[in-house]
Amino acid sequence: MSNASRRNFLTRAGALAAAGAVGAVKSASAAAGPERTIKLPDAIPTALGMPAKPAAFPMRGGQVFAKVCKDEGLAALFCCPGNYDVINSICDEGIPCYGGRTEGAMCAAADGFIRVTGEIAATSGTEGPGFTNMIMNIAAANAARTPLLVLASNKRISEDDTEMGIQTAFQQPTTEGMRKYGKRLIDPARLYEYSSYAFRALKTGVPRPVHLDFPGEVYGKTFKDSSELKFYYDTARVHTDAKPHPDPKRIERLATMIQKSQRPIIVASTGVFYSRAWDALKKVAEKADIAVVESGCSRGHFSDAHRLSASTSPSALHSADLVIFVGQYCMPNVGEYAFSADAQYVRIDPDAGDIGRNMPIDLGIVSCEKAALEALSFAIGSQRREAWVAELAAAREKFEGENDTYYKTALGYTDAIHPAVMARQLSDFLYRGDLAKEQTTVVAGGYGIARYMRRFLRAYRPGQLCNGAYQYGAIGPDLGYSFGVAAAVQMGVGPQAAYKGHPIVGITGDAGFAYSGMELETMAKYRMPVVMIVYNNNAWGIPNYAGKAAHMYLFQENLRYDKMAEALGGRGEYVTQPEEFMPALKRAYQIAAKDRVPVLINCQGKKEFWQRGNSPGFLGKTEPGCMAYDH
Amino acid sequence: MKLGPRQAAGIQSGDKSPHSKMPAAIDAVNAVLENYARRGVFTSFVREGSRFRFTWLWNRPFELRFDARQRALVFPAILPKPADIEKEARRFLRSCAAEDRPVHRRIDPERMAVSFTKQKGALTLVCRVRGGDYEHAVRTAINLVNEMFVLFLNTEHPRYLMEQFERPED
Ligand SMILES: Cc1ncc(C[n+]2csc(CCOP(=O)(O)OP(=O)(O)O)c2C)c(N)n1
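That is the input. Now the predicted structure with thiamine diphosphate docked in place:
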């Protein structure tokens, strides 16, 4: 972390200390007897306000590792207690750290943080139990190609296979298939060396999680001085920031293909975001009137407001005659993207070994995405394609028209709030009201609710939208993602810098809420301004609501997630009718901004909305673009 | 693939005897389909007389038959059990020839007529070729089916895809 961002963190900690002094929240269900209020103990702001305490030799293993993390610019740690030597040392180094309620949700928090900042973050848990609690969300991060550093303590090598004490687990086999690199550290002298392996994997090529587990012999070893550590160099000596550049002949060939094409389109995916290639992308698109559609787990690297954006023009995708995938790490199969059977395909990717997987290619270019787009911006000639631009605009208008129809139909339901009403009014509030449309970072989670929300949510700048479920399709990490995204915005990390301190919005379903709902307490503890919208349809969103199995899909009705938020130190709103949503949203946003607390809006829907005959019903999706859920 | 001048002339000559021109027509159909396989759009391809079978969208098997007598490209039972979506599917088909569609995606009634016929409770897509440009006809038919699945059904009828095409529910 840079000195500047460290200063920001301390400023935030100071603000938190102040908030703590006045931040007691009255319990919603105060029983008779002496009144108890939810209170932030002084120890929390005090701890957060303490200066960093970087370690010096003699150091323990945990401290040595924390120093590597500091030197490598680790942007944040999200964890639960366990792996104590490591997490305490990382905290002492002055890296922003957050302690939550479950390792799984904290793992998702780190993932969410990375998805909207492009910076590396870590998650940590204790040995067997804490580590295995993270598994679903490590797998989700892997599918999303997130450079997530997974840390866990792991007993002692001397006790391997003995079941001595508790918590024995063989960690590395567990993450096989869901990580880019993993290592159980064995030889304490090689701690620094293997840390470099980890950061090399995180910072180069196509990112995915890296998993290190620390036996007691490693984190607890005391090093007198650097002579006891191998490869103990400056980090600049152990990896390079050089990027692969494209073959000029292939760039020329692509320029010719673009010149001959009538309706070219760039699919700007995850690699565009991680290589921070948004300016180069815009330059290329504008120079030759190339349409751009986004895919991936975060959106905004090409503004939805741009005349060349196809992210909200789904019906135009089938017209493209040349499709250029840039940084499309999670590759669709034929039929998953809505392009025609005659489209030509080009792939620009840092990993030669992946080019040609799933989709046939007419041209492959091995390169860092940014380097390729920069080279292309010089190689292509200026071209205007008025007819193509007009087709994109007409498709956009058609899409908005469909959304409008859904909204109007949904307003006809008055016994519950329909997802189309929530989605449309949320978008009115975020993009067509008093707020600057670029301001609010949003986590679009949930399942059925996501089908509506993603049609209406927009992204106007990099990292503005984090898609919750993406590729792995895990229901549940949304409050974890929201916490990590809130932390990123509160600190103003990376592309969030200009929006530092603003409230964020998170969306989830009622089934999803259960997996990470306790993190409302973590949001309240760290005074995170989060408006958390829960679509409560009294059921898992899979409409299997009749027959003998129905009880396995249904919940008790009218559950009060809003009261849970209040009971955990946040605030709650309960919305049961369409006209109540917008006022509740406005109140929630204001309270979140002013009091720096999470506010949960419990939106009472009904399960029948997903069943046949209840138009507009459960929606499908077209990919790539704003509706994308899979790739 | 482009038809050679001799073949193209043969098809468009107005000769009413099917036997004299159909080998050229079916070869043209075969060549275009085979090219999709060569490009990797189809991941497998086999010709059995006038019947073509290929693996295509979502790695599923597809079938196209060339009916020489009717000069038609036929996708048998392409939409099984269409009860809930039949009306909408017919509307989609009509929309493909509508004036408000971009011209590069519009079905030109001078060159092809498309319709659904119902057989054994399933919808069969019939594309009748007019004018004899079989290369254009196969491309148009393939893209019509492509669009029917990846845009129309995917976006508007996800439940139907889950039930009839084993698309994942979640
Ligand atoms: C962890 C996990 N469990 C189960 C599933 C299967 N699944 C996918 S969506 C879904 C229903 C989700 O319901 P809810 O979170 O209420 O979302 P809604 O449809 O109401 O938006 C289920 C069970 C999954 N994808 N992930």
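The CA atoms of residues 151 and 353 of chain A lie 28 Å apart.
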